[in-house]
UniProtKB/TrEMBL annotation:
Localization annotation: Cell membrane
Secretion signal span: none
Full protein name: Glycosyltransferase RgtA/B/C/D-like domain-containing protein
Membrane topology of this protein: Multi-pass membrane protein
Keyword Oxidoreductase included in the entry's annotation: no
Transmembrane feature ranges: 69-87, 93-112, 142-172, 184-203, 255-271, 276-293, 299-319, 331-349
All residue ranges annotated as the Glycosyltransferase RgtA/B/C/D-like domain in the record: 70-188
Length: 476
């Protein structure tokens, strides 16, 4: 309910959401991406999105496309919560404790907002949790460990950054396997992981795009760029950096689960059954805190389930070690619940209420309606530039996908687009000026020229969050 209410109104759309949704649309039309697929991420994430996003599109065709995509994320969030419970039980948590971990995870304001958004991390996390559930299976069947490897490969193919959890998953495999059959379990795990993961480089190899070369994209070339070519986010401990701002925003939304879970992870390391969850928190935290690396906004989504599991599990361990009768332990558990509700409850209520009642996205709804209803001439010939969020709305409104409606990042960076613009900015008729476009105009020469020659014909909202429709004027 928390995730569904107001899902199209809050938070403000991220350009990545529109990109992944457009790529899912391309999958339904027989392509891996709506422009040249350059191996920026493995495609399994938006392939899964394409499998679930068609139903909101069918049932509510009048909604902006990013709202339809967010509705498709609701069943993904539900599956993730079920898997948090399953992993909690496999970690030795009692049913009430595992349910408490789900509540910590589901009610956290960070999770409420992030689960609404169309991020690849939201597809990777359930596969990773499934891998941990298989690895810790009490039955210790070989096929469970093969399934753990396959599930983790699917997690990495959904969002590659979650691959840093591989050493943690091996710890879980070690604890979840019997010493007499451990070598078979590990062999089965790596067989499932490698054979499933090989589909991605095999695809690149068959396309002739595994190795860098002239005139084509490549998997290894893009991987080199992702690892060392993109600008870092700076140090989380230095004010003014992107990483510091991200940590500040995360802590402002939910300091209780983040700080409480991190402290619990340090304290839970000596507890064998909680060690996989605690190690997952610490490994992901160390990656986020590394100096100079790139830290995306949605990265915290990978950490949240393990924070909840570690915090709930440590509370159970401490209560179990109390001397006395079961009634005393029950009273202690009740006291912990009441204390947590008193401390975190008001802040969580305020943040979750904001998520369900705020309306930050009216400008996008109005702009999407303008694209559908305004007569701009022959839409098969009119050319306009949008951000990623409104690209699919324009395509659905009848503008020609790819070179009729152009994603602003492709203006100067995709040869397939630039060759259709022999006169540069003069070949464009309209620009849908969103905050994302205005933030990039200094980096893209053609976009900068468009802003210099554009005249507003419609404006939605005001201030930095407004959207302007600019008609491009040509000399003579």
């Amino acid at each position: 309910m928390l995730r569904a209410r107001g899902i199209g109104k809050y938070p403000f759309p991220n350009d990545d959401e529109g990109t992944y949704l457009a790529q899912a649309w391309a999958v339904r039309h027989g392509e891996l991406a709506h422009y040249t697929y350059w191996y920026d991420h493995p495609p399994l994430g938006w392939i899964q999105l394409s499998a679930v996003s068609w139903l909101p599109d069918l049932l509510r065709p009048g909604l902006p496309t990013f709202v339809q995509g967010r509705l498709a994320m609701l069943p993904v969030a539900a599956v993730t919560c079920v898997l948090v419970y399953a992993v909690g039980r496999r970690l030795g948590l009692a049913r009430p404790t595992a349910a408490g971990a789900v509540l910590l995870y589901a009610l956290s304001p960070l999770a409420v907002v992030l689960h609404r958004q169309i991020y690849l991390d939201n597809f990777a996390v359930p596969w990773a949790l499934a891998a941990f559930a298989f690895a810790l299976s009490p039955r210790r069947h070989l096929w469970h460990h093969v399934a753990a490897g396959m599930s983790f490969a699917l997690a990495v193919l959904s969002k590659e950054t979650i691959g840093v959890l591989l050493p943690v998953l091996l710890v879980a495999m070690w604890q979840g396997s019997h010493s007499s059959t451990r070598k078979f379990s590990l062999a089965g795990f790596f067989s499932g992981f490698v054979l499933t993961g090989l589909f991605y480089p095999l695809y690149a190899l068959l396309k002739g795009e595994l190795l860098p070369g002239a005139g084509h994209v490549s998997l290894l070339g893009t991987l080199t760029f992702q690892l060392g070519g993109r600008q870092g986010s700076g140090s989380a401990f230095r004010a003014g950096t992107d990483a510091h701002q991200l940590f500040t925003d995360w802590l402002a939304r939910d300091p209780y689960l983040l700080i409480g879970g991190a402290v619990a992870a340090l304290c839970a390391l000596p507890v064998r059954r909680l060690r996989p969850a605690a190690l997952a928190v610490l490994v992901l935290a160390l990656v986020a805190l590394r100096p100079g690396g790139y830290l995306p906004q949605m990265y915290i989504a990978q950490v949240l389930p393990f924070l909840a599991l570690t915090l709930a599990g440590l509370v159970q361990v401490l209560i179990e070690r109390l001397p006395g009768r079961p009634r005393l332990r029950a009273a202690a558990a009740l006291a912990v619940v009441l204390a947590a509700a008193a401390v975190a409850g008001p802040a969580w209520y305020h943040q979750d209420r904001l998520a369900t009642t705020a309306d930050d996205n009216r400008v996008y709804r109005d702009a999407a309606r303008w694209l559908r209803e305004t007569d701009t001439g022959d839409r098969d010939k009119v050319r306009l530039v949008t951000d990623g969020v409104l690209w699919l709305d324009a395509a659905d409104a009848g503008y020609r996908p790819g070179t009729g409606v152009i994603w602003h990042y492709k203006l100067d960076q995709d040869p397939a687009v630039t060759k259709t613009l022999p006169h540069g900015w003069k070949d464009i008729d309209y620009v849908v000026s969103t905050p994302a476009l205005r933030g990039e105009r200094e980096h893209l020469p053609t976009l900068r020229a468009l802003f210099a020659h554009g005249t507003p014909v419609a404006t939605f909202g005001e201030g930095g969050g407004r959207i302007d429709i600019l008609r491009i004027g040509r000399a003579g």
